[in-house]
Design brief:
Length: 456
């Protein structure tokens, strides 16, 4: 074995040391560090030279925890609310102007009563009701023809089912049908939360996370509910107070002397509902980004360990990994640390506020469970006080900031909403007459052939 000993002595004395265990070649440190441990020049086999990044980390100042963490941005969310609300009101105003003009032409061609004056809002509203009833009757006739060859019992069951569904739809006001449609969308998205293949999409696209940086989720989260009680309560409240709010908006538009005529308030209501929901979610986002989140970071900073020594290597981790590196005492799960904004509670508060301010003498009462009637203003004031206490006590069961934002939007719209809506309608007139109280004869001749036949 003399040849093996001669080979080892030759390799050790060479300036390059071959580390067979690590399959890497590193320069020998014998000559540079003659006395490392007790005067011995032997270096352990696992010793390696620090990398360039480690050397830079030793010389540069390691940023503190507070310097590496930044509050979420609110600029994109504010822009999304502003642009989205303006776009919703412009589209709603254009559609309302077009439908009002078409129904004015339609009624003007139906009888001589409207030759000298334009039809009023109530007359156009009744005409739309009769036209919708005629449409439902035509659909019933088509169903009767389709089931003509069926057995008598089954045919009677189909016709009876259609009448039971169509009659309540016809009897209710037009805006309440939209409220029912919103409730139907809420119900479908509720079931999507409980399907394994769609719940991840719902969490990423239909729930607003303030730390995600997304803005469009403020809109999609309005129709998203994970709890059956939540979706049921919101849908019922939208249907109840949505019709009252639309009635107030329609009445203000009809009573105003300088206001344009309006055939239907449903587009106005839809723009108001979307804007109220966006504003309430924006208030919740800003409150979390500028109030709740800095407090949480300060608490995490107090819980974080002492900063490492300069000789230790510190890697800058990702934003969320650094924030939630340790489990704080006040949070037991990630969902509790970062609340997700879902539901239309903010928009519901806006509807409640408008109803309470527009009809101060109205009373509120629940049939299930039975409750005593309360004044609408007292009920809304109690809810607002409850949310203020919830913010002060840091309750996280409800989104109190979104509730207060919706109430503030409702109060603002009760005071200035009709005038704001009138400005959007005047901007969106386009080629239509400057005042929809007069139908030009030329426009009547151009559009008469395109209009359906007037109701009988």
């Amino acid at each position: 074995m003399s040849w093996y000993g001669h080979f080892r002595s030759t390799v050790r004395s060479s300036p390059w040391h071959i580390n067979l265990r690590l399959f890497s070649i590193t320069p020998s440190l014998r000559s540079s560090l003659p006395n490392v441990v007790g005067g011995s020049s032997r270096i352990p086999w696992f010793t390696s030279i620090p990398s360039f990044r480690q050397q830079v980390a030793r010389t540069n100042k390691v940023p503190s925890f507070g310097e590496r963490v930044r509050c979420p941005s609110i600029k994109n969310q504010v822009l999304f609310f502003g642009v989205g609300s303006i776009l919703a009101f412009i589209l709603a105003a254009e559609t309302t102007n077009s439908e009002t003009f078409l129904w004015s032409v339609r009624l003007a061609s139906a009888g001589p009563i409207w030759k000298g004056r334009p039809p009023s809002n109530d007359e156009m509203r009744r005409a739309r009701y009769y036209a919708f009833g005629k449409t439902l009757q035509q659909r019933l006739a088509l169903i009767k023809e389709a089931v003509e060859d069926w057995p008598q019992t089954l045919k009677a069951l189909v016709i009876w089912s259609y009448i039971q569904v169509a009659q309540p739809i016809l009897d209710t006001v037009e805006t309440k049908r939209w409220c029912w449609a919103i409730g139907a969308v809420n119900g479908m998205l509720y079931f999507a939360w409980h399907f394994p293949r769609t719940k991840h999409i719902m969490r990423a696209r239909f729930a607003h996370n303030p730390l995600s940086g997304l803005s469009y989720t403020m809109l999609t989260s309005l129709f998203s509910h994970r709890s059956l009680a939540h979706v049921t309560a919101n849908s019922m409240l939208i249907a109840a107070f949505g019709s009252a709010t639309s009635q107030y908006l329609f009445t203000e538009q009809s009573d105003g002397e300088n206001y344009l005529r309006e055939a239907t308030p449903k587009w106005h209501f839809l723009a108001f509902f979307l804007s109220a929901g966006l504003f309430s979610n924006l208030v919740s986002h800003v409150a979390f980004s500028r109030i709740t989140y800095p407090r949480m970071i300060a608490r995490l900073r107090s819980l974080s360990p002492a900063p490492p020594k300069s000789s230790e290597t510190t890697t800058v981790r990702s934003f969320l990994a650094q924030v939630f590196r340790r489990q704080p005492k006040f949070a037991s799960s990630p969902q509790e640390r970062v609340p997700l904004t879902i539901g239309a509670s903010g928009a519901v508060y806006a509807l409640l506020t408008v109803t309470a301010l527009a009809y101060p003498d109205s009373s509120l009462a629940f049939h299930i469970p039975p409750t005593f009637p309360l004044s609408a203003q007292f009920a809304v004031g109690s809810l607002i006080a409850f949310d203020i206490i919830g913010i002060w006590r840091a309750w996280r069961r409800f989104n109190h900031w979104a509730h207060l934002g919706g109430a503030a939007f409702g109060a603002f719209y009760w005071a200035y909403g009709p005038r704001v809506w009138e400005v959007f309608r005047e901007i969106s007139l386009g080629t239509l007459p400057s005042s929809l109280t007069y139908v030009p004869h030329e426009a009547f001749q151009d559009r008469r052939s395109e209009e359906p036949k007037p109701p009988q």
